[in-house]
Amino acid sequence: MQYIGSQITTPSIIDELAADGRYAIYLTVECFDRRDKLMRADKANISLERGREALCYAKNAGLNTSMLYILGLDPLERIKEEMPKYKDALTRHPIVNLMQAYSAEQESLRHPEARDMDYYILGRKAIESVFLPTRMRPRSWENYRAPWSTAYGGERLDTII
Length: 161
Known about the structure:
globular
């Protein structure tokens, strides 16, 4: 069972899940900057460091771990700075979705750099540079709006769902 959210961060609850042995924790990180403006307060109140600590604790307790991130909300430099900090906290590749705006108001949330297609190519490459040395790869059924579809760092991805 995969838990996707931001509420499970305390060691005692993680230990309970680990005792069962059937859980994975996917932390909804979503963005690195402007968290107070882009996220609900209960999610934004969990600092990036605290979230990573919870993921590391869960991984060390034997749970599978991952994170959800939205490409298009942060500047590229921030992605390059923060994404490597998650590498050792995860057992599964991050679920990375592309920012989609369904209204003009939502479009205003997009980082200005992300208004250019090159941003997404460079963002994809930045994330690949972190996880290519690992065995973690995006899974097509988890990354339905991802910057990867058939290839990852030059490797062919299994696209069969």
